[in-house]
Amino acid sequence: MRFAILGSGSRGNSTLVHSHNSYVLIDCGFSLREAERRLARLGVVPAQLDAVLVTHEHSDHVQGVELLARKHGVPVYYSAGTGRGLRKPVAAQGLLVDGERLVLDALEVTVVQVSHDALEPTQFVFDDGRKRLGVLTDLGEATPGVLAHYRGLDALVIEANHDSNMLAAGPYPYHLKARVGGVRGHLNNRQSAELVMELACSGLQHLVLAHLSEKNNNPWLARACFTNVLGCDADWLQIADQQQGLEWQAIA
Ligand SMILES: [Zn+2]
Ligand SMILES: [Zn+2]
Questions:
Q1: pLDDT tens figures, 75-90
Q2: Rounded to an integer, what is the distance from CA 217 to the centroid of its chain?
Q3: Ligand 1: distance of its center to the CA of 187 in Å?
């Protein structure tokens, strides 16, 4: 299995997972044209995609989904709640249900509902029979489902959205600070690092920090927080970028 990130942050999110002949995209928070450009950077064309899994209806996750489905016939999966929240409706190939498994050719996907200010947000654990990858962004706190499903992974992409001091001192109005920092908002650096500790991820080959806020975080702070909490090598940690995303990472 291998994975790559087309881009990550409040201006668009999309992650690509590949095993054998299966390509699965998680979210498409870019215009179709931009998504095509970013897929091409990774050597993939939309026609190769077996599915797009939509985590939730926020625009930084769904912008290109409808066109990807309509122009390229890519099957789309989302939860019932997310379907109700989509501003540009698109037919679902299947509905995602918390705790259930979806088999997409070589990849088995476990659906995990998370705590976030959307109608029925989900995140995913991928298993190709050999290795397991967790993708976990857009959550304000770790709920029992997260703690149950994200243990013992080989690779993890996890949100490190903000630094709590930067958020408190930053430019957001009070209600937005409360929303972002709340239990249905986003994980801050420390919460995220402590969650990785709690998940006992000693076997991780890759740990990727994602969905960093451009206004309320920076890569140096996030990296310092994780190396502090985990005691890991700063060079081993990777950070997904809004523009460049992250190149292919093989899970050996
Ligand atoms: Zn988001
Ligand atoms: Zn969101």
A1: 999 999 999 999 999 9
A2: 17
A3: 11
Q: What is the pLDDT of residue 90?
A: 96
Q: What tokens were used for 210?
A: 């994602």
CATH of the domain at 168: 3.60.15.10
What amino acid occupies position 110? T
Phi, psi of 140 (to 5 degrees): -90, -20
Residue 24 CA, ligand 2 centroid: distance in Å: 20
Q: How far is the CA of 26 from the centre of ligand 1 (A)?
A: 12
DSSP bridge partners of 35: none
Please give the average per-residue pLDDT across 156-172, as a whole number: 97
Distance, in Å, from the CA atom of 136 to the CA atom of 214, rounded to the nearest integer, reads: 19
Report CA(244)–ligand 1 centroid distance (Å).
Answer: 17
Tokens 């698109």 belong to residue? 90
- Cα(117) to centroid(ligand 2), Å: 7
Range of the domain at 11: 2-250
d(CA 19, CA 250): 10
56 CA to centre of ligand 2 in angstroms:
7
Stretch 186-196: mean pLDDT? 98
Domains: count for the chain = 1
CA of 126 to the centre of ligand 1 (A): 20
In this structure, which ligand is nearest to the CA of 139?
Answer: 2
Indicate the residue type of 45: V
The alpha carbon of residue 133 and the mean position of all alpha carbons in its chain are separated, in whole angstroms, by 11
Give the span between the Cα atoms of 78 and 65, in whole angstroms.
11
